[in-house]
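Tutorial handout. Part one gives the primary structure; part two gives the three-dimensional structure as tokens.
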Amino acid sequence: MCGLAGFAFPENSPSPLPDVKSALKDLMHRGPDDEGFLAFNTCASTPIATEISADYQDANLFLLFRRLSIIDLSPAGHQPMLSENGRFALVFNGEIYNFKELRRELMDLNVAFHSDSDSEVLLKAWMQWGSECLHRLIGMFSFAVYDALNQKITLVRDAFGIKPLFYFLNDHKLAFASEIKALKTLLPNIKLSPNAQSAYDYLVWGSYDSNENSFYKEINQVPPAHYLEVSLKESFSVTLTNWWFPSIKVNHSISFEEATAKLRNLFLESVKLHLRSDVPLGAALSGGIDSSAIVCAMRYLEPDLPIHTFSFIAENESISEEKWVDRVNEFVGAIPHKIKIDSSDLQKDIDNILRAQGEPFGSTSIYAQFRIYEEAKKNGIIVMLDGQGADELLAGYSGYPAERLTSLKEEGRYGQIISFLFHWSKWPDRGLKNAFIQFIGLVTPAFLKNIAHQWNGKNPSPSWLDEPFLKKSGVRRINPGKVPQKKENIGRRVPETLRHVMLKGNLISLLRHADRNSMHWSVESRVPFLTIPMANFLLSLPEHYLIDQKGRTKSIFREAMRGIVPDEILDRKNKIGFATPEKDWLYANDFDLKNQLSHLYRLPFIKEEELKSTITDIQMGKKKFDFFSWRLLNFSLWAKEF
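Part two.
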């Protein structure tokens, strides 16, 4: 688990040499244990420098690396890692959990190894199979591999986008890094500007990280399940390839009982692989089904393993998960660590969390997560398991009712629609009113839905945005979270949406939060739910295996965990997670929100008076409170800092 960066320009187009020392310093929190450096002239077959102090005036390719040692703590895991023949060089951020199995497979092909690291396994797998090796990997990764023979560098990102990889590219310069801060250091002469489309998507829809864009117009990110090939010959040529896109074709032949047994085995095998570590590990525990299942699976697989759990406990009892956290900790005999925070803590740490994230983010619950990783670091825990991704693969949250109803309608199961809505409404935070709204949405034409959304505050053109500026900037007004429904997916609207949310939606931003928060404290965050075998399997199941006719979410997973997780956890109906009292914090007497937005008012697409009026209406209860207030504050502070 590390930080990487690189810089390249065509051999015949000299460029100012990058400040590699400062870039490595920017990445130190991602890898405090070791650093590495290689400089190449792409016309030569070997590196011309392996130390920063050496002369690399003739170089036109630089690979930088900071290491957080997790697997094989010896110097044999040092990066950048060169192949024996000198053709390939690798910088790799992440973990390959099935590296031992891949190592044995490669050894059967007469491939020799000189370390016990997963980095060497990845390098040898790439040499053996090329990009086809990606489908064999169980893990999280972003990496860059340089092929000296073909003068080509390939930037790769894992299937779900768990690990980040940003890049800047034009016809005479390539720079890439695990974090934007290091990337900016490598580009001191490049003027960066806010991305108007990203700003609009974030402020209006609350959407971000859902495509290649960053919040800077000039910086992109490699999308999940993609790799970017860049030729470093006379002029850069670029190819972006999508290396994995899961099918959602239904498997009708598998019974619920068979699917439950298979899911149980898949999940336990995944947790077992994610426990591979040469340093102490723990788990984030919210008290919900997902994190509880991970903690209980850890105990099931490792009866004698010391388990440290870390939980945010809200002071407001209505959103506190403490009783559920206590039940799980008692069940597995864990060593609990509880974190409690208030508005003064947020004010004190707000600059730190903003710098850690590097870009605007969605809500104050991300701050609770930030403090959990801080507590893990204080207690010597270097690896943390997390339940992220379960809701997106198992149809959690409120059970995607609109999508389930659409599937039932498309299949002509009209009697089941009424039955499903009746039972769905009985669950907490749903109710008959919401059920009625879902039904009306099912039978209402699209143009009337758009009008209703505007009445409900989901206006694509709010009064506080400057329309002429947005039009001039070419900003699209389409909600990025809207899933395009395709004819070939009739009756499969739930997995269609889950796949979209997983690869182009909310999950990517959630994974970004965890990566930045954990790496800020030099802690590795692992997500056992997110493996290709798990995703392929779950997206192939009949919809009612995920959401049953009673409106129960994660139906098959609840049954798969019987005997491993306490029944009272599996039978929970409410979902809270790391919920924070956001309104109380933002509108506290000592927190002047309007003045905190001063830097937002200076942006060319914001109307100051209209925005102040909107804030007053929220504060007075005339407009519904949601995450919008935090987005305004967060974007203003980001504009000030960056």
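Part three, for discussion. The chain is about 40% helix and 15% strand. The two ends are 26 Å apart (CA to CA).
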